[in-house]
Amino acid sequence: MRALLFTQLALLVTIISQAAPKPKLIDQNATTETKALYHNLGKLARKHIMFGHQHATEYGHGWTGDANRSDVKSVSGSHPAVIGVDFSGLSGRPAEAIERTKASLRKDIAATYDRGGVTTVAWHFANPVTPKTGFYWKDSVSAPAVPDLIPGGSHHPQYKDILKTVADLANTTKGADGKLVPMLFRPYHEFDGGWFWWGKPHCSKEEFTALWRFTVTYLRDSLQVHNFIYTFSPDCLFRTEAQYLDRYPGDEWVDMVGVDNYADFGRNGQYNIEAGITKLKIVSDYAEKAGKLAAFTETGLESIPNTTWWTNTLLKALKAEKMKLAYVLVWRNDTRSPTHFYAPYPGQASVADFMQFYQDPYTLFEADLHHVYRRKKLLFF
């Protein structure tokens, strides 16, 4: 009998030791609200996914700067659960312009927090070495700047100054409760392509991972930023986990893993949903194995000409493999362009289908979120 008990105990210990690690932030000094958000994102991803839209409350189709407005809210009655902003204006411009940008970002990010929503941050970072080239790579003009920014590089001191600007924004953006606002910080996205100056053709694997690790270390440890959740998001140019992790800086440097994928979801009329699902599953499975959160960090169909895209393409893909994804974000609605939009606005052809997407119990919008910045009083419905 005793031998049997010891055998069962040994088996139990083995099962526990082999279990996937519990998601834990890489910043041990993260704020209480940031820890709570991270915990709750993992919890909701078991049965739901949050819907996000880039620049949702800053501007939309034919408007800009209206208070408490978004195209998604105009259609559904609720803002997106996740709202994307961009730190693109925090460098390469006159000091006065940067300060105006910080003030605007503080206001928008704090407003989302006060309403109970979540902010994710992209960084279309203008090339610090050749600033006139912007964030896109331009052959024969753009500098391959990554090696210049890492420790020992010619522009490393300048990069530290830019990160100080980012840190100042992070450390001064507070909600009405006086607490620092947590943000999903997603630098150097789509690095596996060549269209940005930090892309794969323009720096080595070692240079890219050194840049990522320095960025985290300097913000977290030197500049005392403790309200960032660090998010890793390549484009969809991978087919295996090994390819996905080709430039991964390591589990100790990442909180959330994601993927940007427009190509498999209808861009230029091309659909390969099976491939898109496979890539999402690679991301979700790795997160589960490594103790990370996962997300579909960017997608969308420009102009939404497919009037059932929300339910017959996106929702079906998200539900296909019982994946655990915290959120899915579609790109922005330009204020002037008649065709550059990724979420419906009143009267747009996909509104009826979007409302089915909105009403599905699996999807969460801002009105569905309650107490995501608290650990013990979490409600999603």
UniProtKB/TrEMBL annotation:
Matches recorded under InterPro entries: GH, GH26_dom, Glyco_hydro_26, MANB/E
Residues forming the catalytic site: 190 (proton donor), 298 (nucleophile)
Pfam families: Glyco_hydro_26
UniProtKB keywords: Carbohydrate metabolism, Glycosidase, Hydrolase, Secreted, Signal
Sequence ranges assigned to domain GH26 in this UniProt record: 32-367
Record PROSITE patterns: GH26
Signal sequence interval, chain numbering: 1-19
Family: Belongs to the glycosyl hydrolase 26 family.
Protein name: Mannan endo-1,4-beta-mannosidase
